[in-house]
Amino acid sequence: MPTYKAPVEDVQFLLNDVFHVERYDNLPGFADASPDVVEAILSEAAKFAEEVLAPLNRVGDLEGCTRHPDGRVSTPKGFKEAYKQLCDGGWLGLSAPAEYGGQGLPATLNTCVSEFLISANMAFAMYSGLVQGAVSAILIHGDDAQKKTFLPKMVAGEWAGTMNLTEPHCGTDLGLLRTKAAPQPDGSYKITGTKIFISGGEQDLTDNIIHLVLARIDGAPAGTKGISLFVVPKMSLKPDGTLAGPNGVSCGSIEHKMGIHGNSTCVMNYEDATGWLVGEANRGLNAMFTMMNHARLGVGLQGLALSEVAYQNAATYAKERLQGRALNGPAYPDKPADPIIVHPDIRRVLMSIRAFNEAARALVLWMALNGDVAHRSEDAKAREASDDLMGLLTPVIKGVLTDTGFANTVLAQQVFGGHGYIAEHGMEQFVRDARIAMIYEGANGIQALDLVGRKLPKDGGRAIMAFFAEVQSYMKDHASDAALKPYLDPLGKALGHLQQATMWFMQNAMKAPDNAGAGATDYMHLFGLVALGYMWCRIVEAANAKLANGANGNADRLKTKLVTGRFFVERLLPETAAHLARIEAGAKSTMELPVEAF
Amino acid sequence: MPTYKAPVEDVQFLLNDVFHVERYDNLPGFADASPDVVEAILSEAAKFAEEVLAPLNRVGDLEGCTRHPDGRVSTPKGFKEAYKQLCDGGWLGLSAPAEYGGQGLPATLNTCVSEFLISANMAFAMYSGLVQGAVSAILIHGDDAQKKTFLPKMVAGEWAGTMNLTEPHCGTDLGLLRTKAAPQPDGSYKITGTKIFISGGEQDLTDNIIHLVLARIDGAPAGTKGISLFVVPKMSLKPDGTLAGPNGVSCGSIEHKMGIHGNSTCVMNYEDATGWLVGEANRGLNAMFTMMNHARLGVGLQGLALSEVAYQNAATYAKERLQGRALNGPAYPDKPADPIIVHPDIRRVLMSIRAFNEAARALVLWMALNGDVAHRSEDAKAREASDDLMGLLTPVIKGVLTDTGFANTVLAQQVFGGHGYIAEHGMEQFVRDARIAMIYEGANGIQALDLVGRKLPKDGGRAIMAFFAEVQSYMKDHASDAALKPYLDPLGKALGHLQQATMWFMQNAMKAPDNAGAGATDYMHLFGLVALGYMWCRIVEAANAKLANGANGNADRLKTKLVTGRFFVERLLPETAAHLARIEAGAKSTMELPVEAF
Fold first, then answer.
1. What is the number of CB-based contacts under 8 A between chain A and chain B?
2. What residue of A is the nearest CA neighbor of B321?
3. How far is CA B494 from CA A510, B285, B430, B512, B531, in A?
4. Is the pLDDT reported for residue B449 higher than 90?
5. Quick check: A291 pLDDT over 90?
6. Lower Cβ count inside 10 Å, N or C end of chain A?
7. How many structural domains comprise chain A?
8. Which domain holds residue B533?
9. Which of residues 478-497 of B touch A (CB under 8 A)?
10. Is B451 part of a structural domain of the chain?
11. Cβ B598–A315 below 8 Å, yes or no?
12. Position B319 in a domain
């Protein structure tokens, strides 16, 4: 059975020493999040994740969800009780506004907690993650009545939330969607259509489920400009907000899938279900993007979270499993064999995962802090800058953290040899669970296109120029720091590759957009490596500063940062050159074959 | 439901036009394999794979194997009948010696057929692949009585074969094994111990199962030098060779695993089971390596075979699924959306897989031909050269074809978006099935170590020097071929990286072997890219020659080779630089952290 230990200290190091969270105290909610409050919250969350959720992870995989003939869906044994604990602990409302029952703490803190929950039990954490996404969307786009009706119950966890976008014939291309909304005299709409791949579409955890549904109002334009967003509760509500009876929403079937068995993936049938318009008519995609962006960062976090728990178990196994001898002679001559962690190829695997995880966590928290600035700051310029950075980095975090996170679960599984392939060790479940994160909320190829086709050129390239400027000014500010030079030099080289690739797109993709399309995924990963390399410089800088200040008993842990960061720049960062070479090869050989040759 | 179409024409092109199989006609069996015989055999095999085995693939995954309380194991519905068809068709004995009932055809032809069977149904093909491996081992190491007793039944398919190496506490490090062999007065041994991960250890396909078992004779030295190989039939034999009664072998349980559910992975308990020594006492590892090398090439082939079938299904889906529009305007304005194959990122995926598959198939067949030379040639120098090349390339084929083959199944799954994650489309099964190939028959990290630590320095580097000489003389011979230059130049650069890496090991790993260990996996992949790049040059050369000769109506197909080869050198080959950079980084940051830091 795999185990999990939440990286509480690493999160605190990032918040306090790398990102100096106290500098954000002018934002609402941050002053309440003093270091001791943060420590208490993280410790409690860790305990809940480690002791309640982690033991249910394999149960959830084995048992899966069951749809009963009447359309009800049961979640795996223990999920209901754990979900109640989650709600009772107030975890769903950690960063929700106080007026709806939340604690108003930084969303950044919620991100830290989410990593723990996902590592412990991804299928479970999806239920709560989707509620939080739906809360965001209603908060921003809903009217006062909708907020008052839905948010308190959702923040408390009594009601869940879902996103309903995909239909059988349309996933990425939402312009094709067919679900209809017929206006009613009372201002509501009758929603009719079929949605697929709806995570948590039906379950037995909550009394009600608030579905956010994309549909086309009768007579609306074809394509994406005729799509509206509706809120459709599973159970109709009486005027006082209590449950009336079933609305016309039902789960037609649940999918048999590769992983995340503990989460019900439903086909949802809407038959004249009553719903209400959220935001403006025909502007549904806009509203849904609020939820999508929240969800995309959450999905990136899933990549990291599974990479982390897979790493932990591989490291433990590598220290325990005795097999063979170190290449330069027995390390433990008294034992029948050495633990496999003495072998450089095993170390390579462990270090590769770790060097990614620690920087990925930094990147996620940096983005989360920018999210808090974008949503809470009173300074319009600061909001704009943070919003730019988030827009630019959301596809990078979603695409790179899930691609690499998945690859890392495969690497970690490999450490177990044949035992990694056997279900009872749990490593293969991490691989199966992590796989979905590369697909949903926009398959990673779409993330890459979003980055290259939309985010790069947006506002005349303002966001990418600001990113370059930030990294360059950091390098300039620390140019005389000799201890940082071995990290800064490779970062500079990698940044050069990213700039060259950006320039190449500007020169070659305007007239021939396939040149951008064919290089998009490589560009996304090149970008990710630069962003992670930048994070490593900031981590090493912080570790050095702390070491110079006496390290507070943490010297050993801080020194690991220096080594792991060096591994990153020596072993993972050189990949930027290969990405650049592929981008500069252009689209010709990619696109040249006629369709019938495939 | 996924479908499969065996690449018969591609195999014929490789045999006839790239490798000029007629030049091998001096070897036993090759003259019988005239082009029309080969065509007939490949077509029959294709039909069997496509029509009988492929439809059972998903059945096998869903149903899996069942162990009954009495220790019997049932394979999935339909496997038994299909296995009988396989045996009746003579497929098991295609390249086995005529004196044991085989057809004596080239082993190369058997390799071609095996790819088809594996693509169609990997779990099924493992049963027959293991019989063939056991036949090889007994052919080479068994005595006459053993050959006479076992081989005719095994070649006919009436009896199966297995390899029994792993024990709960020892996989890679066989020196730790504990299974005992007690000598008996009649010359037999009583075998006692527990073996795990035994593929096909028990099944209902055959009347008897011939287990090849590693065990330690009482009083033998500790470590790998005290291990002997035994043949242990599941059913004891009467003196006339017919079945007597059960021997002391039983299946204690079967594993629940990530994939290959149709193949029973057994814990095998030996309790005073009667066995006979195969080959010399204490030289069991040697004998087992015959089987292992056969099996390693077979496992490499699994990587290719799953990459191929996954590619085919992704290509079909990409041509059918309508979603979005081409970047430079609608390609099919009359349809509601374009098929996703118009998108460069989808093309990138398909081309990446295909550019690997076609060269990997060439590499496998080139090795298979060398195998036939090594086993059948009367020319001692030719045998030595082929044996050297096989020794060198076996870990490369096993490691690179399974790592990349698995990665390709993941890429192909991605083309399906959310549908790729759903079991009914079958793409996720390819991923789960392909995953094991990176692990068994020596995890890929072990292949890399075998390459770097054993195969490179062997005989003073004779094999690697011969490989370099072969590629260099090819490049020299074709230096004036302008049409080949765009392929030769990148190959030359990649070869330079490989030579530089080899030199780096010579200079840095003698005294510090961790430097070799930390770079081994990168070296293996660097080697693989060079070998595949070399194959692409030979493929393109052959395609150009055929095009110049009128192409025989195949011009379109031959031209795809030119484009796909260019994609390979532009998009996949540049990775060699990153591998070299990682190798030259050495072991320091990989090994520096203390064990307790993990």
1. 253
2. A169
3. 32, 36, 31, 26, 10
4. yes
5. no
6. N
7. 1
8. 460-591
9. none
10. no
11. yes
12. no
